[in-house]
Amino acid sequence: MPDIIVALEDRIALLTLNRPERLNALSYRLIDELTAALDRIETDPAVRAVILTGAGERAFSAGADIHEFSESVRHGRAVAIRDFVRRGQAMTARLEAFGKPVIAAVNGIAFGGGCEITEAVHLAIASDKASFAKPEIRLGMPPTFGGTQRLPRLVGRKRGLELLLTGDPITPARAVEIGLVNAVVPHQALLPAARALAQRIIRHSPDAVRSVITSATRGLNMAIAEGLQVECEQFAALVGSADLDEGLSTWCERRPPRFAI
Predict the structure, then answer these.
(1) How confident is the model over 59-76, as a mean pLDDT?
(2) In this predicted model, what pLDDT tens digit does every residue of 5-43 receive, in sequence order?
(3) How many other CB atoms are found less than 10 A from the CB of residue 108?
(4) Of 43, 1, 50, nearest to 22 (Cα)?
(5) Nearest by Cα to 238 from 211, 258, 259, 256
(6) How far, in Å, CA of 97 to CA of 59, rounded?
(7) Ramachandran region of residue 204, left (φ > 0), alpha (ψ -120 to 50) or beta?
(8) 103: β partners
(9) In Å, what is the CA distance from 129 to each residue of 157, 161, 190?
(10) Averaged over 189-205, what is the pLDDT?
């Protein structure tokens, strides 16, 4: 069975982490399959948005596959960094910078690397049965898939450090309060809510959506003056495009838009 299941419906690709017997732990194979799926989807014009969720009823992802990771550690620092850290950081960076909106539908446990995926994606909706945690400190290590950098940026330095240093669980209500997720919904409404959010986005110009994602993602890691330059460049790239012309005509003529799909 594949570790990533891909299903396409109504221009939305549903990617399912498919290791339910291991709480969808992020094995090297799963990470590689997820990256390969994103590579295919990125250039597929039939896909306008991505929803990422976990198989089974218990977990979104419980984090890295500790048994596999431990074997890399036993082989020494260079192997652990190459096989584990760089692979995981490349995955979360890929999700963060992806040119189409990525929505996490967090259906259960999202610990460690599962929480780092939630931090990296553009938007996230949590089931009321979800739970979050940064338990790496209990293993005697920091998060390694970007959690020490993204979580404080998302929730604030002191909140982020509290979660990183204690490893304490985070309830869905707390996750939405601090900005880790956008909304919490009843468990059975999770995927419909994620699809509804995706549909609200993909009704707009795909080039404009990509431009917003690029500007916001790159700008977060820059001084504001540099970020404003990125914003200017993204706008300039759209001047003369069919979608911008259509959007302006739509506004002036008070009619529904007809963006290319």
Answers:
(1) 95
(2) 999 999 999 999 999 999 999 999 999 999 999 999 999
(3) 26
(4) 1
(5) 211
(6) 25
(7) beta
(8) 51, 123
(9) 27, 25, 10
(10) 97
Q: Which is it for strands 12-17 and 4-9: parallel, antiparallel or unpaired?
A: antiparallel
Q: Which residue has the tokens 């192997």?
A: 79
* Three-state secondary structure string covering 66-97: HHHHHHHHHCCHHHHHHHHHHHHHHHHHHHHH
Positions annotated as catalytic residues are 116, 136
- CA 63 to chain CA mean position, Å: 14
Q: Map tokens 């911008």 to a residue.
A: 244
- To 10 degrees, what angle do helices 113-120 and 147-155 make? 50
| Tokens, residue 230 | 């990125």
> Nearest 5 degrees, angle CA 33-CA 34-CA 35?
90
pLDDT at 258 over 80: no
Q: Which amino acid is at 60?
A: F
Cβ atoms of residues 14 and 54 within 8 Å? no
143-149-153 Cα angle (round to 5) = 130
3-state secondary structure of 221: coil
Distance of alpha carbon 125 from alpha carbon 194, whole angstroms:
7
Q: Would you call 259 helix, strand, or coil by DSSP?
A: coil
Mean pLDDT, the chain, whole residue set = 95
Buried b (16+ CB within 10 A) or exposed e, 113-138: bbbbbbbbbbbbbbbebbbbbbbbee
202: exposed, middle or buried (C-beta count within 10 Å: 0-12, 13-18, 19+)? buried
Residue type at 163 in one-letter notation: L
Tally Cβ neighbours within 10 Å of residue 33.
19
